[in-house]
Structure formats: C-alpha cells, structure tokens
Amino acid sequence: MLTLAPAARAADTVDPAADKAAFQKFFTSKFPKLKLEDFVNGPYSMNEDLHKQWQEKEEFPPYEFSLEAGKEMFSTPFKNGKTYADCFPNKGIGIRQNYPYFDEKEGKVVTLELALNRCREANGEAPFSYVKDDMAALTAYMAFTSRGKPMDIKIPNDPRALEAYQKGKEYFYTRRGQLNFSCATCHIQSPGERIRAEVLAPALGILNAMPIYRSEWSGMGTTSRRFTTCNSQIRGVPLNPQDDEYRNLEYYLSYVSNGLPISGPGARP
C-alpha cells in the first residue's frame, strides 16, 4: 500500500497506463516468488498448501455444472429464433477479455453482464438476476471460451472514459461501511492474510477468474455478486448491481490487470 499510494495520488491528471504499471509492480514486488499470471488464482496463489488444494479441486471443478448449463443456454435460441451469438462480436466466443468496455455513444461503461441482459431484452426475453445462477452460467461459458487470453481493456481518448476510470479508482480506495474499509484495505494491504477463515485475494487479477464458485456461497456468483457481498461484509450498504459506480469499479480493476490471462470460471474457498 505504501509503495502504491503515492503514485496513485500523484495522478492528478488521469494516467491509466502509469496506474497499471505501478499496480502490477506493487504486487510483483510484494510477492516476488509469484509470476504475473499466478495472481489470477487469487488466494490459491498465496501459499503452497492453498495452491495444492486448488489443483486438487480443478480435477473435479465445482463450477463444471454451471459451465455446462451456460454452454447449453448460450446456444439455445430465444423465442424469436435469435441467440446470444447475434448480439456480440465473433458470435460471443473468446471475447471475455474485452469486457467491460466504454461505449462512446452511451458515454458509460458496459459490462458483459449488462450486455447479456440487454441482448435478452432486445430479443423479447426477461433479464436475468445479475448476481448468480443463469447469469453466472452464461458468463462462465463465455469466460471459458477466453481462457488464457490476456485481459485487454481499452480506455479511449475520451474525457468521459477517463472520468469513468478515475471514478472506479476512487471507489476502490474510498473507505465505507461501519468497518471503515475500502476495497484496497483487504485486497492491496492484506492479500494472503486471513479474515476469520477467509484468505484475502490480491486485487491484481481478481476479476480475471469471474464468475466463481465459492464454497462460502455453496454456488456460483458473478462480479456483481462479489461487489455487493464485499460491501455487505464491511457492513456497508450495497449498491444495486450494475449501478454506474460498480461498472466504473469493474472498469478500473480490469484495466490494471491488463495482460493477465482470463482464468474464469474460477473457484474460491
């Protein structure tokens, strides 16, 4: 935190490239034994015992049921005969690494979860819950088709995009809730340490594994679920999934992990 914060605060003029370099340098300096790509394994990258647990878990991954359901859902036509593939570039295959993106017409960040629900609504279907089950299954399948591809988030030379990025960054470092924690309190200052039985994950690469199966949840959850859960855990008031603040946060966190591979769907303790 002490290494990263001065560089972050010095960015009075928004400089995402400098932020990303400082962010990744902070983690690789703090954990010199880890390769950059190891951080996408979250808490399982933090010590040898946890890593062994993860390898064993991957032999029979708990997210497999969701992945299979998502593949079937993705290819099943809507009532009008169209499919999700009609809504996305490259028919929706191998594109996870490009989300979220800044939509210059709309002037806002568009996440994959939001794009999927917009696709459904444009084809006469009801939107899914943003936090689990069907949405988690669909994003699990789309993430799986991008596994190994480096996160590649673009920030166009548009002051609105830079503002969205900066607001996401500010949200990440702002303390809130009764515990007065920020996202950075756990995921910059304390990765590898425990809060009760939970090992805190590093912020670097934390979204590359989404969606995830969590033993704590006994099921799958999306990025939206992770954000709202984090706010609840610090005894704050969660925002509505896909509110601008959460979309901007996802934009910031994804951008600073550019270059790290997509590893979703993932599993966490």
UniProtKB/TrEMBL annotation:
Co-factor note (free text): Binds 2 heme groups per subunit.
Pfam families according to UniProt: SoxA-TsdA_cyt-c
One Gene Ontology term of the molecular function aspect: oxidoreductase activity, acting on a sulfur group of donors, cytochrome as acceptor
GO cellular component, one term: cytochrome complex
Known cofactor(s): heme
UniProt subcellular location: Periplasm
Keywords attached to this entry: Electron transport, Heme, Iron, Metal-binding, Periplasm, Signal, Transferase, Transport
Residues reported to bind substrate: 226
Binding site for heme c 2: 183, 186-187, 230
Positions of the Cytochrome c domain: 163-269
Biological process per Gene Ontology, one example term: sulfur oxidation
Residue positions of the active site: 230
Quaternary assembly: Heterodimer of SoxA and SoxX.
Family indicated by similarity: Belongs to the SoxA family.
Protein name stated in the entry: SoxAX cytochrome complex subunit A
Taxonomy of the source species: Bacteria, Pseudomonadati, Pseudomonadota, Alphaproteobacteria, Hyphomicrobiales
